[in-house]
Amino acid sequence: MRKVYHRIIQISGNVITVESADIPYASLAEVTSSRGTSLAQVIRLEGPRVSLQVFAGSRGISTDSQVRFLGRPMQVSSSDALLGRIFTGSGAPRDRGPRIEDDLIEVGGPSVNPTRRIIPRRMIRTGVPMIDLFNSLVESQKLPIFSVAGEPYNPLLARIAMQAEVDMILFGGMGLKYDDYLFFRNTLEEHGALSRSVLFVHTAADPVVECLLVPDLTLAVAEHFAVNGKRVLVLLTDMTNFCDALKEISITMEQIPSNRGYPGDLYSQLAARYEKAVDFETAGSITILSVTTMPGDDITHPVPDNTGYITEGQFYLRNGRIEPFGSLSRLKQLVNGSTRDDHRALMDTMIRLYADYRESLEKQAMGFRMSAWDDKLLKYGALFEERMMDLDVNIPLENALDLGWKTLAECFEPRETGIKTDLLQEFWPHAESPVDKE
């Protein structure tokens, strides 16, 4: 029988404080007030003072409300019955389905032992040319999408969820507008992807405390299925909302703020989640693709700045497109050499020519005389943006490679590309031999 405490000595925002002994950190408690019973989690131990954050908020809680410690940390089900279901940030059903309490596992454990990890070696195809062709997503990779408010990052995530060649999708939404939540739910349902997905969604109207639980719940379930052989893709949006929730709680706890008011352990908090990405030798994998919005498009903001030190590259989403410059997948070289013989050469050539196009565009804007080469680059750049960068383009990698060759052939002579002769002979789309043509 757990002891029940009837005296709360402090209520500050969603954090309450009681005096107790031998209470483990991160353990759960039930707080019973006039509004009913809510879960709370221990977030600070300071001598006999135990501080807990109440998931449903402290409204209705008074100093004589009851607090009963459960003696265990947060748990979530790992049952196969999770598939196709949608839950809140506290793990309660959001889809009006039954609660699932089978096969409970603890939330927020340590990341996988490095000795159990293997070097990533498999590509995750998404159907997005700017990812598959130019910055391949690799299993066990952790990559953020850096963006600003208003960019179509949520539609991009939904499209990847529908098309990614993985076994399972684990989606964690933090601070979503209700319209965005409905968009994800309806899109996945209409395209048949909900049956292989599990969604943990915190909306902007939910208690801020629940926002902090979403990544941990999502990654705990992902880790369980990965250990049991599943290739799992974790999609998180928006990690800036998660960090803002951390900041709000730290202010409530009167912690000394760091850069721009964020807690001093911001890096550790982010790393603890991102480092869950792993590829097992004899089991499955966890790949993490997250959205990080940058206030004012400021890459030096603490959230994207700390994220960049942890992750293995990033995608920049600007003007409704994934930018080729600045976007980087540091692990792409581990997989794009085994897709098709022309992948690396075509990728390098197209990006180099697109950089030349940008220079020609500046010359045109400044009124300089344009050469025949500049005219070719301008034609190529327009086709590249239409066929590769437009997020509406939805084609497999092999089709994207063929389209890349077609684009080059429409704008340049074979010798102007700088590609090796053997690749030109094999892949150049003209009927005649490019070597003979020269």
In short:
The protein has 438 residues and is α/β, with parallel strands linked by helices. 34% of the residues lie in helices and 24% in strands. The termini are far apart.
Brief descriptors of the model:
about 450 residues, Thrombin, subunit H, 3 domains, seven-stranded antiparallel β-sheet, 21 strands, elongated, disordered C terminus
Task: Describe this structure as you would to a colleague.
The chain is of the alpha/beta class. The protein has helices spanning 129-132, 153-163, 178-190, 208-227, 239-252, 266-274, 302-310, 343-365, 372-389, 397-411, 414-417, 421-427, 434-437; strands at 4-5, 10-12, 15-19, 27-33, 36-46, 49-54, 66-73, 75-77, 86-87, 104-106, 123-124, 137-138, 142-147, 168-176, 197-203, 231-237, 278-279, 285-293, 313-318, 321-322, 328-329. It has 3 domains: 4-72, Thrombin, subunit H, CATH 2.40.10.170; 76-332, 3-Layer(aba) Sandwich (Rossmann fold); 343-437, no CATH class. 34% of the residues lie in helices and 24% in strands. Strands 9, 13, 14, 15, 16, 17, 18, 19, 20 and 21 form a 10-stranded mixed sheet that branches. Strands 1-7-4-5-6-3-2 form a 7-stranded antiparallel sheet, with no helix packed on it. Helix 4 packs across helix 5 (239-252), helix 6 (266-274) crosses helix 7 (302-310) and helix 9 (372-389) runs antiparallel to helix 10 (397-411). The radius of gyration is 25 Å and the shape is elongated. Residues 433-438 have low confidence and may be disordered.
Strand and helix map with partners:
Elements: E1 4-5, E2 10-12, E3 15-19, E4 27-33, E5 36-46, E6 49-54, E7 66-73, E8 75-77, E9 86-87, E10 104-106, E11 123-124, H1 129-132, E12 137-138, E13 142-147, H2 153-163, E14 168-176, H3 178-190, E15 197-203, H4 208-227, E16 231-237, H5 239-252, H6 266-274, E17 278-279, E18 285-293, H7 302-310, E19 313-318, E20 321-322, E21 328-329, H8 343-365, H9 372-389, H10 397-411, H11 414-417, H12 421-427, H13 434-437
Parallel strand pairs: 9-15, 13-18, 13-19, 14-15, 14-16, 16-18
Antiparallel strand pairs: 1-7, 2-3, 3-6, 4-5, 4-7, 5-6, 8-10, 11-12, 17-18, 19-20, 19-21
